[in-house]
What we know:
Number of strands: 32
Largest sheet: 7 strands, mixed
Shape: globular
Mean pLDDT: 89
Amino acid sequence: MREVADHQPEVGYDHEAIQNRWLPVWDEVAPFRSGRLDDPRPKKYVLDMFPYPSGDLHMGHAEAYALGDVIARFWAQKGFNVMHPIGWDAFGLPAENAAIKRGENPRTWTYENIEMQKSSMRRYACSFDWDRVLYTCDPEYYRWNQWFFLEMFKRGLAYRKASAVNWCPSCQTVLANEQVVQGLCERCDNVVTKKKLTQWYLRITDYADRLLDDMEQLEGEWPDKVLLMQRNWIGRSKGAEVTFDIEGSDPVTVYTTRPDTLYGATFFVVAADSELAAKLAAGTSAEGEFQAYLDEVKKSTDIERLATDRPKTGVFLQRHAINPVNGEKLPIYASDYVLSDYGTGAIMAVPAHDQRDLDFARAFNLPVRVVVAADEDPALTGVATADDGPHVNSGDLDGLNKADAIAKIIAQLEAKGLGKPAKNYRLRDWLISRQRYWGTPIPIIHCDDCGEVAVPEDQLPVELPDASGLDLSPKGASPLGAAEEWVNVPCPTCGKPAKRDSDTMDTFVDSSWYFLRYLNPNDSVRAFDPELAKQWLPIDQYVGGVTHAILHLLYARFFTKVMYDLDLVNFTEPFKRLLNQGMVVMNGSAMSKSRGNLVRLSDELAVHGVDAVRLTMVFAGPPEDDIDWADVSPAGAKKFLARAWRLSGEVTSEPGVNFADGDVALRKATHKSLHDADLAVQTYRFNVAVAKTMELVNATRKAIDGGLSTADPAVREAVEAVAIMMSLVAPYTSEDMWSRLGHAPSVALAGWPTVDERLLVDDSVTCIVQIAGKVRERLEVSPDISEADLQAMALAAPGVVKALEGRDIRTVIVRAPKLVNIVPAS
RNA sequence: GCCCUUGUGGCGGAAUUGGCAGACGCGGCAGACUCAAAAUCUGUUGUCGAAAGACGUGAGGGUUCGAGUCCCUCCGAGGGCACCA
Length: 826
């Protein structure tokens, strides 16, 4: 008879005591130290996106690291040599802003937060290898940012150019295209303006085709959504370049995806803010009007520009372009609906088949000529047609469909030297200069005589000067420029006085290669060891938020390809498999102080314990889905942990008993659970894996309550299996169970039990017998029953006989051993 | 506007290749224990119906012996892109 105390968790299961018992033991056993070179086990590299040290861990971290941990711990149980490192993405604006606000040093603030997060992660039982930790703000880390930058500089992949860049007046720095969302600064949500500046860029557009085409390798391994977003972002389009003569000026080339509609061009547009527009306007009677228009355009913000329902505006430049196919004179307009930094900054306008051109044509009373036959006339409907169809009014293109017409016109233009096939990308080069202090200094010295001079490699790292004494407040120029002693140096080439580049790098540079630094984070002679990279990379499983679907992942993929070209790595894609976890929300919306729906992780941990919080995160649903904390029950999770834990105290056999002697029914339940949970984990259905573990706990409970001896080997086998399965999610509880079962730590290394296939086969199967698709009978049959026998049995079953009374049978579908469907004749 | 994803009990969610819809859990209800409550344990819980049974995976249609699953149309939710020629 069971003692009452067994059902009293407040006496038995005590999460606080269990946590305190095992944390110090793990420090000694260190079950997750990885990467010994002589380790015979196959490798798995499991990587969580590293955190930004902006304070203590929050609920979002708790979810992400719980999920990453399930995967890392699973592969360790399955016998793999798992590398699961962690580090800190420690440069960036929040540290600097916090420093300004409190008059502190960004370094101090950053490292304090890191220490806090580190100790929280340790308590949260993250299975990180604490021997491999990195901080991107460490000079020994960022020196390699500088090294990579110089390697790119040498090859022309890093270059400086002047252009109108995105400028956040609040952050007082430039932003990459990727950091501007709907015309607002991604960080502070202020309106982004344009500013003409000379800045450093990385030539990511050189890699656009490979970034796009290599995604084939990721198909099925990355979320489709992310692949799609990357494809859209790169935005490759195929078309042609066509050269137009200009009356009284030099010829102009345009890019078009629809060269087949060349006969439908009725006007010509150049980007108002392009040099071409200014050149064409110069000396015409339209010059004054053009200047006034340009001034207007420059005043408008991105927000205004992005409004899609904005009426089209522009100025006729009093010039004409000559259509190369028919010699027609096309009036040239300057307008802000044409972008100066895409294609050639000039377009041929085909209003019948392009909505934007049609809108402009209607606003300026320009002719509309249909060249692809359509049911409705765009000039009347106001809707441009983009469908395929026979060409009309198009000379010898008449009658051809779109694909054929495109091929023919390109061939014709090419023969005359007036055009050629062309590709274009939405993707722009990556602007990496930032006018802030807390980042990697750009290792370039500007010399009046020698120009941009690379800092010699033996002088790396270019360390940040001490922040004390510098005014870090945003003022539009880098604070480093005011560090006189730091900024003024002799030119490495000629020795004359010169100045260091005072900008720092975008922090996305730091995170573009950090996964390689983990291999040997203290290597002082190179960024990483190529031999170790061959062994460990690419990353088998990457885990992180979908917020980085474009930025970080695109940049890291770009860096990887550059490293491949530099012969530093032997792979072209860094992350083989990607899991995007969802967010933790509260009552339907993202948690925030201002909303008043913030749930503090530390509170949850104190009340329910680490394991219950982790279990709640994992069990809530599919990992990609958001978790609404209001919908889940950490108390319920704790109840389950206590139930499972209590079982471990009831086992009365000794470790090492022969499981084969145990009760077959319970053994079957155990092996089925192990099998199902294994499959579930591998397919990211962690919640299902947990459910399978719960089923086994329930089955074991029922078996014991039903009279099975607690000394039966099957009971030990079941409870040990529970402990091992639970070790992925609830490390403290399962470690304690393992100990109560008479084993030495750590359960994390116990190994996933081998499933006995014979125990997965049931003695009998429930066969359902349907009549016209409705279940009428259930039969217990042998799993290897023949179809004929099963059909005979089904037809003889009383329920079937009764239901079929007086009806003829049309067909019988037999799917032995699980189903028979009898179809009566009407 | 365009593209993608998604829609299953009161709630979170399960459901190899089309084959017993609702696993597992939360919540609810009933009972045990208790002076009482909490906690815990046991049972029960899709809807309608006393029952037999019928109905049931956003709506409508289709394919099929059989559809949550496949196809078409529509509706709702979430996300991405939004003058990229």
